[in-house]
Amino acid sequence: MGHFTYSESKDQHLCQGDILKKTDKLIRVLSEVHPYFTREEYEYFMVLTHTCDLVRRSGSQCKSKYITLCAVRSFETYLKREIKSKQKNKAEKGTICDSRYKSYFSELLERLFNNNETEQFFLASEYESEFPKYFVAYFRV
Fold first, then answer.
1. How far does Cα 117 stand from its chain's mean position?
2. Looking at CB atoms within 10 Å, which of 15, 59, 78, 103 has the fewest?
3. Residue 98: its pLDDT value, please?
4. What are the tens digits of pLDDT across the range 107-117?
């Protein structure tokens, strides 16, 4: 049994929340629209468009004129960026920052792991699938 966040796709319809792995076909589309997201750090994308707008009824086109995706990056990248945003002096390098941020990070990670952050969504590691490490979906990216 896998993590509760994930479910097996039972049909061929694209749904809100689906995770798309960056494939050659997706890279071609991204190259035309947003070449920035063809960079190596973007391995996955999450579908944000509502499922009801993506369903193809009676073989017709879906209601949505375009599909909104958000970037999915590794949890490691997320954490490094958060730590870097709190580093204020030259002595703080790598994953070191002032201890006064201990409660800030504790609360931030608790909200993230419980998916109570408004701009990010935590994706747990799923060893039974292609998701071997933790990821974070960035709704604004």
1. 13
2. 59
3. 75
4. 999 999 999 99
pLDDT tens for 16-32 read 888 888 889 999 999 99
For residue 107, the cross-strand partners are none
Report the DSSP beta bridge partners of residue 123: 135
Residues in contact with 50: Cβ distance below 8 Å, sequence separation at least 6, in sequence order: 16, 64
CA 122 to chain centre: 7
pTM beyond 0.85, yes or no: no
Residue 121's SS3 state is strand
Whole-number Å distance between alpha carbons of 138 and 44: 11
